[in-house]
Amino acid sequence: MRWRSMLLAAITLTLLSIFLVIWMLTWNWSVHYLPYYLPCPEALRKDVLTLTPWLAPIVSEGTFNSELLNNAYRPLNLTIGVTAFAVGKYTRFVRRFLESAEEFFMQGFQVNYYIFTDDPEAIPHVPLRPGRNLSVIPIQGFSHWEEISMRRMESINKFIASRGHREVDYLYCLDIDMVFWNPWGAETLGDLVAAIHPGYFTVPRWQFPYERRPLSTAFVADGEGDFYYGGAVFGGRVERVYEFTGGCHMAILADKANGIMAAWQEESHLNRRFISHKPSKVLSPEYLWDDRKPQPPSLKLIRFSTLDKDSMNLKN
Amino acid sequence: MNSKTKDCLSKTYRDWLWVILVLAAFLGGYSTYFILEHHSSSPEPATQSVQHHEKPKIELQTASQRRIDVPLLTPWLAPIVWDGTFDEDILNEQFQGRNITIGVTIFAIKKYVIFLKLFLETAEKHFMVGYKVNYYVFTDRPNDVPKIPLQEGRKIITLVVQNYSRWQDISMHRMEMISNYCHQLFFKDVDYLVCLDVDMKFNDHVGVEMLSDLVGTLHPGFYGASRETFTYERRPKSQAYIPRGKGDYYYMGGFFGGKVQQVYKLTKACHEAMLIDKSNRIEAVWHDESHLNKYLFLHKPTKVLPPEYMWDKQLLGWPAFLRKMRMLAVPKNHAKIRNK
């Protein structure tokens, strides 16, 4: 009898839905709690990862209070260093980089910019605020952009040994073809700091462009790795940056001796090293963005991003 | 209806009934499993971490946050070390190569010596297992310090100190004693110091995840409470004064720590503040704890431990956000124990 079977089915479904509703309510209750007191309740980002499994904070808008951080760090009278390489045609990016840094980078701190270039004459004079200085560091230019890129580790390492360790407390190593759009402050200070590459933060680990040839010292095996970090931003305490760049440079030399160059040059080596020497702080893609990408809703703010340019034209 | 249609119909009806029953059974089973799993971290001693991992998969996307029911970071980006937010294996890898020694200070003055046995025995099971540990027992009764079998690389150092007649004085003088011994012992013997109350027992893993430059622990009695109810010292005359509307958290006086240099600065500052208060004839409402809170308000800790690290089951029960009870208060009769 049709009506009977339908009635039975209807009753069962009703019971089931009641059961489901009760279950969902109970499930919610088991994780419900009274909100814990925080000075800025909005600082609770649930939509993004805010802590790595080794307890390094992942810095994004809404996770920190700038005022608290400035009050903690400004009295320490720190000097923050910035290295950037403007070789060949890349000198054209210096002005915008410096002007935007003057507006947004480490406001209220002493800052030393170190521009490494093969053409010191081409570095424009950009007015700087008090307490901020520019040094032009002459280096050798190379014909291949890959070579220029990879030599950065060595140059930074040598610079720290000769001057950097005396002049700065923290050092950031940034790409020059970028612009600051929003504040970059004391929230980024840490012992060893890496930034997540904007192209790979929604991509599963097996797709990260690690160096996959075992012959290279930058080799990362399947299943290894945490995040894919960008070579355009890294930093930390000057001693830690010295060790880090030294380690990367040695690995690059070993590869050279074996006649191999890693898939993404020093970025591959940086990623290899950050697996065994995990950063104490990780910057979200707000701190290293690619303007060619559409801004996802989880990215509240873009602080530092590439200048859209014809990269093929520039690299030789 | 002819019999053929009837058979067809009852067969379909039976199939559907089976589908619904299987679904119901699955949902029932899953929800039971879910509830059981949530309460699986029991308060009984757990010697192994509940997580047995393969390499953790970390993707920076939504819904990959391991805990969404609690705050994971302070506004100055210090991690709050909740269970489920860290990977013990990765952290042990980071710390093992550094050959560190962790110092623990505990004060067993007068009758408090009775707490030593349980404290030390449970510490051997749960505290910094696999690392070098020096237990510094400050006592006025060195003969009452129990002999406990210790794991390799761990030792008990008994430091004989004076007692005070008031328990408040005993509590407050801990700061002085710790800062004094920093120069004599701690700077050269240990890398990290953890300063604990002795009337506690370890109940679950306490490891290197808690180590950092300067560490404070959230007082279990104030978790979920609003700032106005925090029992900070409110009299401006005291060095421990924190005005209304200020302050981040209420920290526990019985569990703080960090690198020796940082603990030295903290204990020295608190001791000096208490001396100034004494000369002004004022005693902070919660003694050394008030001064600790003032210090950590001005010098933010680099890591904050959640109430998992110091809990009182008798007083506070077992709320949902507490997945582990790592250290528990040992029930005691306050009147009998103090001032004797």
Automatic annotation (TrEMBL), chain A:
The gene is GBGT1. UDP-N-acetyl-alpha-D-galactosamine binds at residues 85-87, 90, 175-177. This is Globoside alpha-1,3-N-acetylgalactosaminyltransferase 1 (FORS blood group). Binds 1 Mn(2+) ion per subunit. Pfam families: Glyco_transf_6 (PF03414). An alpha-L-fucosyl-(1->2)-beta-D-galactosyl derivative binds at residues 197, 267, 290. Belongs to the glycosyltransferase 6 family. Mn(2+) binds at residues 175, 177. One of its GO terms (biological process) is carbohydrate metabolic process. InterPro entries: Glyco_trans_6, Nucleotide-diphossugar_trans. It is found in: Membrane. One of its GO terms (cellular component) is membrane. The active site is at 267 (nucleophile). One of its GO terms (molecular function) is hexosyltransferase activity. It comes from Monodelphis domestica (Gray short-tailed opossum). It is a single-pass type II membrane protein. Keywords: Glycosyltransferase, Manganese, Membrane, Metal-binding, Signal-anchor, Transferase, Transmembrane, Transmembrane helix. Its cofactor is Mn(2+).
TrEMBL record, chain B:
Pfam families: Glyco_transf_6. Keywords: Glycosyltransferase, Manganese, Membrane, Metal-binding, Signal-anchor, Transferase, Transmembrane, Transmembrane helix. An alpha-L-fucosyl-(1->2)-beta-D-galactosyl derivative binds at residues 219, 231, 289, 312. It comes from the Eukaryota. The active site is at 289 (nucleophile). Its main location: membrane. It is a single-pass type II membrane protein. The keyword Metal-binding applies. The chain crosses the membrane at residues 16-36. GO terms for cellular component: membrane. The keyword Ligase does not apply. Binds 1 Mn(2+) ion per subunit. One of its GO terms (molecular function) is metal ion binding. UDP-N-acetyl-alpha-D-galactosamine binds at residues 107-109, 112, 197-199. It is found in: Membrane. One of its GO terms (biological process) is carbohydrate metabolic process. Belongs to the glycosyltransferase 6 family. This is ABO, alpha 1-3-N-acetylgalactosaminyltransferase and alpha 1-3-galactosyltransferase. It comes from Monodelphis domestica (Gray short-tailed opossum). The lineage of its organism: Eukaryota, Metazoa, Chordata, Craniata, Vertebrata.
